[in-house]
Amino acid sequence: QVQLVESGGGLVQPGGSLRLSCAASTSIFSMNTMCWYRQAPGTQREFVALITSGGSTNSADSVKGRFTISRDNAKDTVYLQMNSLKPEDTAVYYCNAIQFVAGRSYAYWGQGTQVTVSS
Questions:
Q1: Average pLDDT estimate for 22-33
Q2: Is residue 62 within 8 Å of 76, Cβ to Cβ?
Q3: Residue 65, C-beta contacts closer than 8 angstroms, at least 6 positions apart
Q4: Cβ-Cβ contacts under 8 Å for 85 (sequence gap 6 or more)
Q5: How far apart are CA 28 and CA 72, in angstroms?
Q6: Residue 83 CB contacts under 8 Å (≥ 6 apart), including other chains
Q7: Which residue in 16, 28, 55, 100 has the fewest CB atoms around it within 10 Å?
Q8: What is the distance between the alpha carbons of residues 116 and 114, in angstroms, rounded to a whole number?
Q9: Which stretch of DSSP H or E encloses residue 116?
Q10: Dist. CA 99–CA 24, nearest whole Å
């Protein structure tokens, strides 16, 4: 069982920055894709950004140019650098890992970290 632990959330003013971390209990090199999702109160969980094992990245239009996803295989950690934060970025942010093994896919989730953007 893969465990993911997020950290780095908190309260920040509009225009500020935060860096979220997602530490995995196993080698993230074995994960096909690592993602960040977020969920604001009363809304569905939505995709934020992803990074593949090959280093390719993609992100939601709402965060393009502001958020950057990266990975450090040596530390088994994925990061989400969030700049120019807006109140609408307020949500619980979740780390997700997808692994393909023997033709089957497995998805793992962290417990989430709260990000609040407010003055």
A1: 89
A2: no
A3: none
A4: 12, 13, 14, 15, 16, 17, 18, 66, 115, 117
A5: 9
A6: 17, 66, 67, 68
A7: 55
A8: 6
A9: strand 113-117
A10: 13
Hey, which residues does 12 pair with through a beta bridge?
Answer: 117
CA distance 35 to 45: 12
Q: Which two tokens stand for residue 29?
A: 């090199």
- Indicate the SS3 state at residue 28: helix
Give Cβ neighbours of residue 54 (< 8 Å, ≥ 6 apart). Answer: none
pLDDT band with cut points at 50, 70 and 90 for residue 36: very high
The number of residues making up the chain comes to 119
| Cβ pair 15, 28 in contact under 8 A | no
Tokens representing 98 are 């997808």
How many C-beta neighbours within 10 Å does residue 79 have? 19
Joined tokens for residue 78: 């994925």
CA distance 89 to 41: 12
